[in-house]
Amino acid sequence: MSLTLKLVLTPVLVAQAVATRARLPRLPEAEGPREGEAGDAAAARQALRLLVAGDSSAAGVGVAHQRQALAPQLGERVAEHLGTRVRWRLHAQSGLTSAQTLALLQQAAPLAPAEIAVVVTGVNDLIDQVPSRRAVAHREALANWLRNAQGVQHVVFAPLPPVHHFPGLPQPLRWVAGSDARRHNDALRDWAAGRSDVSVPEMDAPLNPGTMARDGFHPGEPVYRYCASAIAEHIATAVWPTLPKETRR
User: Measured between alpha carbons, how far apart are the two ends of the chain, in Å?
Assistant: First the structure.
């Protein structure tokens, strides 16, 4: 989408954004434990340790309990794919940008050790109008900190969802936000392609009123289930084979 067209639409977009923020219900984060284990305890001598971090979609907004959300389902799917024990831990908070996710983790440090981190951020970068280049720089700082300060071996960044399918957003706001999300994803993938220690899975979540939360903005259980399966398959096929042998024993 051209900058000129976006500027022309700005008064409408601002009015729609304000009205939408006031109209949408404020959904709570999912209740339940933010750490757990999955898989057969006898399947491996050492469990794979998984960190999940990010914004409301990492925190489980849109479902009632963590067992319906991303982190526990991701732990289960990774354990199934790899035939190993997975110990997962969640650090997330609704409303965080990529930069604020790093700040949250730094405040919680030292974190429990993890070989793989899955980071779910980006939608709030769009809401706050963070330029795509700056959002990628914030993700780079996050990945570098996880690698250098916490010993994480690989960071998986979930792509932004297809915002142009969010039923809770009116047009043309939905169309413009979707265009911005695609631009952010392109920048994220271009950056990740230059590093062996970060990656972005291919995902095409089925977003419609039947799969999303009642606000039409956050994931419902079917979307969380799909995302857990897609990220787990990515970890099993693209990440796990690249980790040191001592991790994969």
Answer: 48
